[in-house]
Predict the structure.
Amino acid sequence: MSDTLPQISVVIPMLDESGNVLPLIDEIAAALSAYKPVGQNFEIICVDDGSTDATVAEVQQAKQKHPQVRLVRHANRLGMSAALRNGIRRARSTWIMTIDGDRQNDPHDAPRLLDQAWAKDRDHKILVGGIRVNRRDTTGKRLASKFANKIRKSFLNDNCPDTGCSLKIFPRDSYLELPFFSGLHRFMPALLKLYGHECVFLPVNDHPRQHGVSKSDFLGRAIRGTYDLLGVIWLIRHTPKPERGEEIT
């Protein structure tokens, strides 16, 4: 591994994504290599969340082609938030990009999001997220997502139209300062906004799933999401804006 810190660390949670792994990593590598501020200076951290198919073997195969690829593996399924957390904790860059392992996000949207994230300077506290247009999911999944986004926005006022879109870019340290819970990935905009961050959302492509099946459990997700929403409302009401203080020399 190079001693030079990467410009961006891409974190991909994966669960039974055999068939998606190799083309996704090829697409990410191609998109970032063509983006001049990054070039070859990136890393891709694949977090396998207890897959039972050939996902891990395919990541190992991708590592032979792309030396920037790293693999973190959970012995048991821990969930998306834990997968993201463990990947981000191991990231070497000060900036994180998250993306789904099912290839429904388009890696070629990443340069536009990075342009927005780095428009002011690399120290700017900002989250840039995607808004999926022309979604290619089932009608039930689209309606469930639309309803969940409406409820969340009405209570949290986070101005995030599509918190379920995994394509996001944000500073690593900002994420690691957030309180961790199992549904954190759905509430990042609200919490980062609470912590004084700018949140910007740009339209991105959405592709139909080519391999594997969705892991969404609509009823279970709705129940867990309700508990999480109540918890986040409590956090927002009881968490003062962080003040780092000034070191006196």
Strands lie at 8-14, 42-49, 69-74, 95-98, 126-132, 168-171, 198-204.
